[in-house]
Amino acid sequence: MSNNIDLSNVLKNAKVALFEELSKYPIESYNQDIVINNDCCFRTIIEWEKCMGELIIEEAEFAPYRYVSFNILSSITEEIAPIFYWCDSENDSLETIIDKIKEGLLIAFKY
User: Fold this and answer.
1) In what order do the strands lie in the sheet with 68-74?
2) Average pLDDT of each block of 10 consecutive residues along the chain (111 residues)?
3) Which of 13, 61, 92, 110 is a good FRET partner for 67, with 20 to 30 A between their CA atoms?
4) Does residue 2 sit within a domain?
5) What is the model's pTM?
């Protein structure tokens, strides 16, 4: 059974969760660049000392996710080394999406 959540609800709540989690850490411990922030899409790049991540929230047309893609890669290896990769699906609730964003950030800050 699919969860009937819409993009605007995901955008609003996921951004709130992201900013709340980031505010728990010193601003000097990461660099965030918001690439797109509108009613249809949110895309941010976050850089930490040893890794970097991209969070995309949009209505995916040809992507392996419904609304959210969160990827974090190591920046201390010569090879592409994902340390966190998650995409939502039709079965994921808003709570699951928020929990996965928090999980990814925790992994990145501890890496």
Assistant:
1) 31-37, 41-47, 51-58, 68-74, 82-87
2) 81 97 96 97 97 96 90 91 94 96 97 95
3) 110
4) no
5) 0.92
